[in-house]
Amino acid sequence: MYNIPKGTKDVLPNQSYKWQYIENTAREVARVFNLKEIRTPVFEYTELFRRGVGETTDVVGKEMYTFEDKGGRSLTLKPEGTAGAVRLFVENGLSSTPMPVKTFYITPAFRYERPQSGRLREFHQFGIEIFGSPNAETDAEVIFAASTFLNKLGVKAQLQINSIGCKTCRAEYNRALKEYFKPRLNEMCETCRTRFDTNPLRILDCKEEGCKKITAEAPDITDYLCPDCRAHFERVQSLLSALGVKFTVNPRIVRGLDYYTRTVFEFVSSSVGAQGAICGGGRYDGLISLLGGPQTPAVGFGAGIERLMLLMENTSSPFPQPPTADIYLAGMDDMSRNAAFILANKLRQGGINAEADLMGRSLKAQLKYADKTGAKYLAVIGEDELKSGSANIKKMSDGSAEAVNLNEIETYLKKEKKLW
Ligand code: HAM
User: Fold this and answer.
1) Is the beta carbon of 81 within 6 A of some atom in ligand 1?
2) pTM of the predicted model, to two decimals?
3) CATH 3.40.50.800: does it fit domain 327-417?
């Protein structure tokens, strides 16, 4: 017996339709927002994440799955989607294609965290990244795409937004933070004492109770925004209001990754327990140049699929019915079982989800199987049916039946399908 690694999850055959539903919804949202899919490798050179996500973050400091390959290269399983997307953008010269470049991805991501409900070591993200536009419309479009996605899934979450400014106002704010934290340093955790020197903004993201109490009274970034950042933030807010998106401004949202500038946001819900954030993102105008590309503004989000799933299951959001066979073709004896097998495979060529016995079961056992697995129609084929070339097609939901020519089952089911 082998066990699944800690913090990972299997998707079972009777659950996968939920994944497909969420992923199809993501793809449909991507289609209407004219986002094009990108796929990047599951691992990248470690340096990409160190630089991109930032040395002072928990993700880089504590949570990466880093290993050396047989060629002595340091590789890391992607802890998130943005750094790889930026590498793809720069390496493939997408900056010389018409802007904006609008992308999305559905990807696994890996973080060595303490697993709990809604927190896994392998999880999946639907993310979007829009490159090339510095304008507030893009921030609003990205947030509206996230909101559309959650609405389509019937997920209720509160949107919280903030601006963490640009280099100029951040320097000013960091000074104010340091001034505030300095006399309180010895009441704070060791990590925060290091953060004080390396990246004081990170202190606001600390989960330790003691530090949380202290940060509650810390100065707000929104009081330190430069005129340009303030105007940008106000424009984002007025666009969101015009789009009918409800939000609150929460100056404590600083995000756990280092690349953000200006707008940051999270969709949170109390129904996923302690792991409240189901979607997070923001603007990152400095990341592309940091990773060797031309100065290019960008904005995006990542939504955690497992957290969405949990939320939808907890709140009985409308998952579709799991798919079942359109028709089960049962055979009475060896000859008709053979005919049922051939017929089922013919129907499949016409796009019908058809099933026939693969187990050598008795007729009774075949009928039981068809019933248990929720086949929508049933046809029993025996000597008489083969002779006459027609069989009774029974509708399982109400027991009604109609005689149908064996060559016309496909047409019959397609007509019926419109009524399902
Ligand atoms: P993030 O906030 O680190 O942002 O992750 C985005 C989402 O991934 C979270 O809101 C959460 O739903 C999910 N998530 C994160 N960690 C875990 C975990 N251990 N287990 C389950 N779900 C998890 C990013 O990753 C950024 N790349 C988002 C972004 C894109 N910003 C700009 N563009």
Assistant:
1) yes
2) 0.95
3) yes
